[in-house]
Amino acid sequence: MSAVRTVLGDVPATELGITNAHDHLFFRSARLPGQELDDPDAALAELRAFGELGGGTVVQWTPRGLGRRLTELAEVSRAAGVRVVAATGLHQAAHYRPERPAGEPARLAELFIADLTTAPVRAGLIKVAGDFHGLSPHARRVMTAAAQAHHATGAPIAVHLELGTGALDVLDLLCGRLAVPPHRVILGHLSRSPDTGAQRELAGSGAFLAFDGPSRAHHATDWRLLDQLTALAEAGYADRILIGGDTTTAAARAASGGGPGMPYLLRRLLPRLAAELGTAFTEQVFTGNPARAFAADWR
Q: Which InterPro entries does the UniProt record give (predicted)?
């Protein structure tokens, strides 16, 4: 049965509602010391603020080993009344301590599959990561494992693209050699490399394109976002677009850190997109597209 696997169980895709397609409630990284998202009360406040503006679902892309806090994730989801999708998978090697090697694909795939199918709180997608304009050996091992886990479970694969680059290499590996259907792949951070021609090519592959990161002050996201989304919509690819916030530091939270955080998507960004591109467009990218991108025929 096609459904979205949330931390509180499987739900029909039509019940997701307005969806933040890429964000973090819990996250810690060796690259961001002192900015951990590890406070359940702050996570609950942020999720409630999103829900109070009409948000129905948040997709957390925090993978294994980076403080997913799955038990607390289920607790804050239940308390806030907002659905949450968790991730398995692995990020770039730089986000982990040197003593934590990735392991071989077959063993990693076993861990990912367990997270997706038998864990007490289950993940609903697999997170992987590329590198700047290419793929490291670590990335290739993790993506190989992710493809194996996808074929075993049906789970979608979400890809961190470093500064929005390397997407064609990712698709060559995942959808070419590893035979993952393109519509099961979500390419993240496309707004960080605002090449509208390349974005149209990627959308034409059938993959989903995630535009995320209004909380990132050091990335030119918001001021170029409208042009990128308009170009895709005019080319007939509005059905491939997803939008998220990607809050990765405590300082970026709206409820406790100064913002803009999750609420910004619905308080400012969605109304602007509706005014410029129409309500049919915003309903598609915030509700209709996530329902297709994150649902799976779970095996």
A: Metal_Hydrolase (IPR032466), Phosphotriesterase (IPR001559)
Ranges of residues in the chain whose predicted pLDDT is under 70: 1, 98-102, 215-221
The reply to whether the predicted model has a pTM over 0.90 is yes
- Under a CB-based contact definition with an 8 Å cutoff, are residues 285 and 243 in contact? yes
CA distance 147 to 175: 9
pLDDT of residue 99: 52
CATH, residue 285: 3.20.20.140
181-221 pLDDT, tens per residue? 999 999 999 988 889 999 999 999 999 999 987 756 555 56
The model's pLDDT over 271-297, given as tens digits with 9 standing for 90+, comes to: 999 999 999 999 999 999 999 999 999
The domain tally of the chain equals 1
The closest of 269, 272, 270 to 283, measured between CA atoms, is 270
Paired sense of beta strands 157-160 and 185-188, if any: parallel
What burial letters (b/e) apply to 137-159, b meaning 16+ CB within 10 Å?
A: ebbbbbbbbbbbbbbebbbbbbb
C-alpha pair distances (Å), 17 with each of 43, 158, 168, 169, 215: 20, 20, 31, 33, 22
Neighbours of 67 (CB within 10 A): 15
Range of the domain at 144: 2-297
| Residue (of 46, 103, 49, 100) closest to 73 by Cα position | 46
Beta-strand pair 241-244/208-212? parallel
| Residue in this structure with the two tokens 């602007």, named with its chain if needed | 272
In whole angstroms, give the CA distance from residue 84 to residue 214.
20
